[in-house]
Design brief:
heterotrimer, A alpha/beta (about 270), B alpha/beta (about 270), C mainly alpha (about 200), A: about 270 residues, alpha/beta, Rossmann fold, 2 domains, six-stranded parallel sheet, 10 helices, elongated, B: about 270 residues, 11 helices, about 10% strand
Amino acid sequence: MKNLLPRHYVFLGLFVLTALVMSLNIKLDVEVSENTKRLYGFIDSLPENSYLIVSFDHEASSIPEIKPIATALLKHAFSKGHKLIGLSLFSEGTLIGYRLMSEIGREYDRKYGQDYVYLGFKPQYIAAILSMGESIPKTFPKDYLGNKYSDIPILSGIENYDDVSAVLSIADGSLTTHWIEYAGMRYNIAVVAGVAAAMVTTYDPYLEAGQMHSMIGGLRGAAEYEKMLGYDGGGARAMLAQTTAHLYVILMIIIGNVIYFRNRKKGIS
Amino acid sequence: MLSILVLTSTNVSYFNVDKLPLFIVSLVTIAIVLYTTYHKKSRDKYQMRKIGGLGAIEDAIGRATEMARPVLFTPGWGGDIQRPTTIAALNFLSNIAAKTAQYDCQLIFPTHDPVIMTVAQEVIKESYINAGYPDRYKESDICYVSSTQFGYAAAVDGMVSRIKPASIFLLGTFEAESLILAETGNSIGAIQIAGTDSTIQLSFFIVACDFTLIGEELFAASGYLSGDRSIMASVRAQDILKIIIIVFLLVATILVTYQSFFEADLFGWWKF
Amino acid sequence: MTRKFALMTCFIFGLVMFVQYFSNHPTAKLLNQSILEYWQIIFAFTLIVGIAGFIMNSVRELREGESKIYKLASLGGLILMPLLAMIWGIKADTPFTWIFENVQVPLQATVFSLLAFFVASASFRGFRARSIPAGILLASAIIILISRSSIPGFQFDFLTDFANWLRSNPAMAARRGILIGIGLGSVTTSLRVILGIERTWLGGK
């Protein structure tokens, strides 16, 4: 304990506090934001059987945050009867995306190959996004399970972005930017997203400029989406922990400033 | 090849007219870059202001030499070799490597991309040869660690904690790993110089690092450090383009404001 | 000679990719598609270079006795995972995916979660109201944090509106300015590379 620095106490405080509140089963109510309503409205207003590309653009590390977002969006898309084409531009997101799509597809009694398909992973994301704009079957000659593209009923007549209503990028980093810049701008396909909270402000300029249709961000976004869908999922459950962590950070800022001003008064820099 | 020959006989136009405005803008941009780079008079009289943080490079390497501890340079997880930011970061690397060669200070370069690793090996080797100390070059110090974001972050963090470099350069495209790396560097008391084109990560670097190059400063500084007049002159092209954009923004703002007041749709031409 | 060849290749492909962007002609599309396919193939080979380098470095450090336990763990993983993939495949419910889901996912999530701790310590250490602008920045951060929280019994409509205003006006204006600068820097750097003015990527001047 003697060797502990102030930094370590800050770490310890955050750990103890979040662990404590996570063990409590308290759900907080959230106000649904305009962004969430916009994305919900977009998926809701698409005609039944619309095709959506769902790209799992994340790694394994962000599962706790990304899973509630992806779950809410997939639930909505499946419930509206849209045809989903899953894929991943990160090797680590491949299996996670497949598992999630299959799990939620089963929940809504959707059939693989007819209502949804999973194309798997393609390396070099920029090349893959551009290549799909020219030809999806050439980019993914087989699906994740090894079936030939031409043998999959849901994919008959799907050649490129012209045959798809939108791209839904579920990302923990900046990969959605490439969907906007290379698929959205070049091939005129609508791009919507569910992203990690840390990335929300990165996409604000694209959202304001209309280059990206809409998005939800972080656990808060997931909680809002869950509220619109009428169920309590991972987003709603995590809101208390997130709120506590936010308040803790505010407290740290205040304590840091109190120390700073006290030291300044004493002439210590 | 045969399919290309067959396809040339179709009736689709070779030029997509919808992209004409973008084509014109691209040509103007290229013309400006070519003019500033190759017009001797314009090139020679161009002077660049000193960018804050560049002076600290020498101090950071000097400090590492005095403390007999290495310098660590990493270009972040977000970029690959085709990204201009990575190219700019390699210009920095070239300059830093020349100095570490001169001071006989160990330079460690962990990366997430095998291509960046190979190019960095060449860049550092060339710098060591040019500095006159090829024997001080150690290829194993330039290493690929992991392609996954947090695998890379954990590996670099581990290196920082174990090796305790005196100076750390975080220059390139960073994502969520930025604060993890910068805070670890801060915790061991290293001098940290950062620069990135990821706007969201800039705030983390500003809090945790000693010097931060913001966005285009990274490109300008890399041109400045290269010492090449042609590269420095192309930075001037950026300034000229920036002035054009500002004028365009002002005109567009005035037109939109006018339009909203008079509800006239006379000026829709600029909305391409 | 090698350098000249690389510069010529870069110039030709840079020009081709630029020109094809402005065409909808099937020839241009085919050319684009072919180049993109080759790009992906080349990338796969570059991984071999990285992994070979990683193995050589790890073995050398093992011999020299540096960071032994870490090197053993990483080399063990490097051998084990492809081996499992080759024997049982990488589809769902295989040993490969079991390790992925039960070892790699928690490990990576742990490193990611460090971010929260570092945000807390950085806020404690670095977020000081040293001047009026720093104070404004600090107040903005607190407003954004509160607006993204859901505190029971408190309605922060005005704060949420103000936070949204902060995000879509001052913050957005600053970010757009930075983004335009970055975009221009990227354009000029790319042109320098295509025209062969910038040669650092070839290992030197």
